[in-house]
């Protein structure tokens, strides 16, 4: 279908203009009627954040997303583009994307007055109608709203009050579109004041010259609660003009977090080595982020981004890929020991409180990895430290269950108590890695019973997880002879050895 190219053709086609907020509202209603996901690629907000955004759009509100880092605020704002019409007409050459039926700039008005129905029309794609600005302390009114161009004024012999000498900023140039400001509190208060009239009265001032211009813009914002105290604030009049404040959050369940990580992480590589990640390893990686969000060493006001498990999974996959390239294996499985060389993904993603700074970023990161293992082990395996019950309830089925729980690990612990140890490293070939783990009595059966590995290679990883879980539960000793080799030993003998030293 050929689109109209002039104002006259547009009139003949029966085109009816509408405001951008009416456009968003109508398209949201159409999507609701059609069914299906409103925000594809956004996981975990279906029953919390998304309904509030839809309500704000239906109410024709400007709104702000308030949440900690790594909560998909910017992605949500960018996804609003899908609710715009795919193409809209605008007068050719107008810097403000003027509606052909309502010319806004001087250029647009002159064009319609001189050419009438022959005024040329261009079509704007919806992607070009979304603009955003990251708020920083050095952002100026000229950047956002515009400034007077003295050279143009002198060349054209025009007064500074003439709108033709204005060099428009990014906000007016987004007319008939969506404009987003990220990290709003970082914007200086005097710059925030400049946005007040745009939101309500639709006019603005440039260097003291008032410009009455009915801009048609949907304004959206994002902010981090931490910024309210650390770097700035949102002035009260501006907050009052932002109609809806929507609170975002981290994944509510581990499954939601795993879905986000699987969607965003770059795990399919092209180096000729296929890297496979067992399901329980994905659970472990996500559990590290969950434990970080509970840790007393981490500043919870800053938050722990969803990027942490994404980066951690990518580093674990990379370590396995490196091993595969070095050993010449075409298919490799990620291991628990791969986490030790992926620790950089954790240490750079958390803000520490004073106690955490005293411990050191690397020590805290390793502690979080250990807590993740311990939490997953406690969820998947029986508790070896169940207290013994007394009285009549100590007999019968319950006593039998307690005995079973406490005896699950006895063959493994007795094997280590006999003076044996296991040395593992992330560069061992798969066959040698599995061989060393298989010699531990009872380990294979325990891993198979509670982790249900899909194959022998995954079974070996499950056995290593059991050993690390026992260590994190203070039932086995673990020593590192160097950064690459981990040795699991009997806890009691290691303690005696330490006393002897």
TrEMBL record:
<dbReference type="GO" id="GO:0004672">
    <property type="term" value="F:protein kinase activity"/>
</dbReference>
<protein>
    <submittedName>
        <fullName>Magnesium chelatase</fullName>
    </submittedName>
</protein>
<dbReference type="InterPro" id="IPR027417">
    <property type="entry name" value="P-loop_NTPase"/>
</dbReference>
